[in-house]
Structure formats: structure tokens, C-alpha cells
From TrEMBL:
Substrate binds at residues 11-18, 59. This is Histidine phosphatase family protein. GO terms for cellular component: cytoplasm. SMART domains: PGAM. One of its GO terms (molecular function) is phosphatase activity. It comes from the Bacteria.
Amino acid sequence: MDRVVDIYFIRHGLTEGNRQKQYIGWSDLPLLEEGREKLVKIKDQIPAADLIYSSDLIRCVETAELLFPGRRFRSSSSLREIHFGDWEKCTYEDLKDVDAYRAWVSRPDHHTPPNGERYAHVQRRVERFLLHLLRTVTKYSVQSAVVITHGGPLREMVSWITGTPLWTYPVHPGEGIKVKLKGAGGMSWNLLQVAPITAKENGWKKNGSTVTRNTRGSM
């Protein structure tokens, strides 16, 4: 029988840093009450998953505890947002005239925030986690898994699975993306569907008939 698995990638709920449009990487900010209220609205779109993973930062941990009260979940620093270094808690307005910032925005793969994390390192740790997740799903015949993380890692994982550009699927705090995969033997999976998890009445949905992604490969 062909195996099908649903993976729910959830971005943590709203924080004060999100509200202020700050760069929040490893700064450990809690959820706002507004963020908690929005998460409650999407709970019925997420099943009682077989596996639950979360970034180890408090905004993701609180999101996991709210969505899955009483459930055990695994936390991982691999799911953290990029470390913005000296630009932590700064806004675009704070940085827009800084040459190093403009260079980083233009080519984040070639430039790094002062005392921050290289983009290539973020990609490697996120992709290592994703391979671990897919191996675990394969080994234990998991039918559904949830990954609670941050905007950057979420986009990286969805982009890698779907083979689409990084900004194809917009995800705001307290929202997510459901990816449905069909086993193609071993560690290979074909994409069946990508759909939004949002409190909004209307959202995008993309069936996988036009996009197939084989997850076996080097990273």
C-alpha cells in the first residue's frame, strides 16, 4: 500500500517583536495574548499528530503547549530562527541606511549580520533536521507530524520539499503550511498537496500534480 504522510509546519504565535516588525532571531520572547488567541483559531486544522517537534525558543514552546496541551514534544535548537547578531531587535527603519545591512538583504548567501549566523549554516542545520524527520517518518510509519518553528526555517523546509522559491508560500505568525507526501520507496517521497493553515476564511491551495519532489539527494 502506498504510504501517505501529512506534515504540518507551524510558525509560532505573535510576539512583541513581530508586532514591532523587529528582527527577532535567538532573542527569547514569549507569545502575546493576541498571538495565543490566533493560535486557538487554527487548532481544529491540526490533528493529534504522531510526532511533534518544536524549536527550543520559548515562543515556539508556548505555541506547542497551547496547540497540544499535555502532549510530549521534542525540542531542537536546529529549528531556531537565524541569529541576527548585532541586528537583533532592530527594524528595517533602524538599518535601512547601513551599507552592510543593504548588502545582506540583497545577497544573504554572501553576507552575514555582524556577530550573527551565516545563512549557509542555517540552511545546513534546517535541512539536517528535515532529513531526520523524513527518516523517522519512514522508519516508524508515521501518518502525521507537526513542526513548530520560525519564519525562516519554515520557508527553507517548505521550499526544499516543494522545489519552489523561498517566498512562494507566505506564512504569518500563528499560521502554517500542510504538506501531503506520498511514499515512492525508501527515502523518496512525491508531493501531493500544499495547503495553508490559517484563521482566514479563504486561503491558497496547491495540488501536487504539477510539482513532484524526490527527497533523496545530497545536501
